[in-house]
Design a protein that fits this description.
Helices cover 49% and strands 6% of the residues. By secondary structure, the chain is mainly α. The longest helix is centred in the first third of the chain and has 19 residues, at 8-26.
Length: 458
C-alpha cells in the first residue's frame, strides 16, 4: 500500500484531467442524442485509433522497453502487449457494463475514461525479474533508520490530537500507524505519481493480471464519481496504490472513513482520514487492543528449532517454560497470548516471538520482513532500544536463480517444496529443515549459501 507528492507526473495528470474534461464537454451533445442507445454512445466514445500510442521521445513519460516479460506468461510477450495496447479502446468500451452494474453513471464513465491511453511502461514493472533479494538486515537498516524514527516521532508530535483520537476510537497503536506511513511512503515522499485510473485501466486490458485489476479499475471509477479524491490528486504507484499508507482502490472502498467530517474520505491530503482509515483497516482485520506485535527473545542452549515457524504457535507461558526470554531482560506480558517463533536469519540471527497483531500487519502486506519492519520502527518511535542480538552480516544472500536451484535440488532429493518459484515460503523452509536434520545441522529452515552448497555436494 504507498503515497506521493504532486510532482511532474502528477502535474501532467492534472493537465490530462483538464483536457479530458474539455473533451467530455465537447461530447455532451453526442451523449444527449444517444440517451436511449448506449451502443451508439460507446461506438462514438471508443472509436479505436489505428494503433494505441506508445510513449516515445519527448513525451515526458517513462517508455516501455518493448521486451517480453520475465514470467513467460503468453500475455506478457512483446507481441501480445502490442496487440492488447492496440485493442485498448475496445477493452475499455467492453468494461462499461461492469461499471454500470457498480453504479457508475454513463456520464461519469465517459468523462473519466475519454482519451485514456495505456501506460505500457507498467509492463516492465509488472513482470520485473529481480536478480537479488535483500537480506532481512539490509531491509531493516533501510526502513528502521534513525531518520525514519525521527520523522515518525515528529509526525506523531505534530498530529498528536488526531493520533490520540484515532487510537481511542479504533484501539490500534498510533505508533504502528505512523510506522506504516513511514515504511509505505517514507512519510509521503515516495509513493508514485502515476494517475491511478490510467494505471488500473492499463492493467485491466494489458498483461497477465487483467481479472484482478479490473476490480481495481472499477473501484477507482467509484472513488472519482463519489468525489472522495480529486482527479489531479488521484495518483500513486504503477499498480494503483495511493495515499501515505498506500490504499488500493478496492481496499479504500472497504476501509476508508471520513474521520474529519468534511463529507469526503480523503486518504491523500487529510491526516485524520489517512490515520483513521489505516486504523480501521487493521481493526477490521483483527487487531487486538493493548497487544504488542511481538518481542525480541533469546533462546536457551539446546533449543529445539523445529518449534519455530507460524505453524507451531504456543502460549507465551509455554514459550517461557521452554526457557525463552525477552532479549532486553523485561518480563513477557500477557502469558495467555498465543505466539509463534520467527527466525528471519536462522539460528545465527535475532529471534522474535510474534503475536496475533503481527499477523494482522501481514494482512496489510504479506511479508514477514515488512511486518517486522513495522513493529520495530513503531517500537523505536516509542523510545525502544535497538535490537540486542546481531545479524549474520557475513552471510551471502542467495540470488533468485540460486533460490530456484535450491528448491530444485530439494525436490530432486525427495523433499516436498511444491513448484519451484524462487520464493522461500513456509513449505520450502520445512523442506530445508528436514534436509538440515538429515545431515545433522541445526534445523532452522534458513535458506543459506551453506545449505545450497551442501545440496550441490550430495
Amino acid at each position: 500500500m504507498m503515497f506521493s507528492r504532486l510532482s511532474f507526473c502528477a502535474a501532467l495528470a492534472l493537465a490530462l484531467s483538464l483536457a479530458l474534461g474539455r473533451t467530455a464537454q465537447a461530447q455532451n451533445s453526442a451523449q444527449n442524442s444517444t440517451q436511449d442507445n448506449p451502443a451508439a454512445w460507446l461506438t462514438r466514445l471508443f472509436q479505436p485509433p489505428a494503433a494505441a500510442p506508445v510513449p516515445g521521445p519527448g513525451t515526458g513519460e517513462a517508455q516501455w522497453s518493448g521486451q517480453s516479460g520475465a514470467s513467460g506468461d503468453p500475455r506478457m510477450t512483446a507481441d501480445a502487449i502490442r496487440a492488447a495496447a492496440a485493442d485498448f479502446p475496445n477493452c475499455i468500451a467492453g468494461l462499461w457494463p461492469l461499471a454500470e452494474r457498480r453504479g457508475i453513471t454513463r456520464a461519469a464513465y465517459q468523462r473519466f475514461t475519454a482519451g485514456l491511453v495505456p501506460d505500457l511502461s507498467i509492463m516492465d514493472k509488472l513482470d520485473a525479474q529481480p536478480e537479488f533479494v535483500k537480506a532481512p538486515w539490509d531491509y531493516l537498516d533501510l526502513l528502521v533508520s534513525d531518520d525514519r524514527i525521527a520523522q515518525g516521532r515528529e509526525l506523531l508530535g505534530q498530529n498528536a490530537p488526531t493520533f490520540a483520537a484515532v487510537e481511542r476510537t479504533y484501539g490500534v497503536d498510533k505508533s504502528i500507524i505512523a510506522a506504516i506511513w513511514g515504511v509505505e511512503s517514507n512519510y509521503g515522499t515516495l509513493g508514485g505519481d502515476r494517475p491511478v485510473l490510467r494505471s488500473t485501466a492499463t492493467l485491466s486490458c494489458v498483461g497477465r493480471r487483467q481479472d484482478f485489476f479490473r476490480g481495481e479499475f472499477l473501484a477507482a471509477l467509484e472513488i472519482l464519481q463519489r468525489g472522495d479524491i480529486p482527479p489531479d490528486r488521484f495518483v500513486g504507484s504503477w499498480a494503483g496504490a495511493f495515499g501515505p499508507t498506500q490504499f488500493m482502490p478496492t481496499t479504500f472502498l472497504r476501509y476508508a472513513v471520513d474521520f474529519d467530517g468534511d463529507g469526503r474520505r480523503d486518504v491523500v491530503d487529510s491526516v485524520a482520514d489517512v490515520v483513521a482509515s489505516t486504523a480501521n483497516n487493521l481493526k477490521t482485520d483483527g487487531w487486538v487492543r493493548g497487544q504488542s506485535w511481538g518481542y525480541e527473545v533469546v533462546l536457551p542452549q539446546g533449543f529445539d528449532y523445529l518449534l519455530a515457524g507460524s505453524a507451531r504457535p504456543m502460549t507465551v507461558r509455554q514459550w517461557q517454560s521452554l526457557g525463552v526470554r525477552r532479549a532486553d531482560g523485561k518480563p513477557l506480558p500477557r502469558p495467555a497470548d498465543r505466539a509463534s517463533l520467527l527466525l528471519p536469519a536462522g539460528a545465527r540471527g535475532p529471534a522474535f516471538l510474534t503475536l496475533g497483531n503481527f499477523n494482522v500487519i501481514m494482512k496489510y502486506n504479506p511479508a514477514e520482513a515488512y511486518a517486522l519492519a513495522i513493529g520495530l520502527l513503531a517500537d523505536r518511535m516509542r523510545g525502544g532500544a535497538p535490537l540486542v542480538q546481531s545479524w549474520p552480516r557475513d552471510e551471502r544472500v542467495l540470488t533468485v536463480d540460486e533460490r530456484y536451484e535450491l528448491q530444485q535440488l530439494l525436490a530432486q532429493r525427495g523433499f516436498r517444496i511444491g513448484a519451484p518459484d524462487g520464493l522461500i515460503g513456509p513449505q520450502t523452509r520445512f523442506a530445508i529443515r528436514d534436509f538440515q536434520t538429515s545431515v545433522g545441522d541445526i534445523p532452522d529452515g534458513f535458506a543459506s549459501s551453506e545449505v545450497l552448497d551442501r545440496l550441490r555436494q550430495r
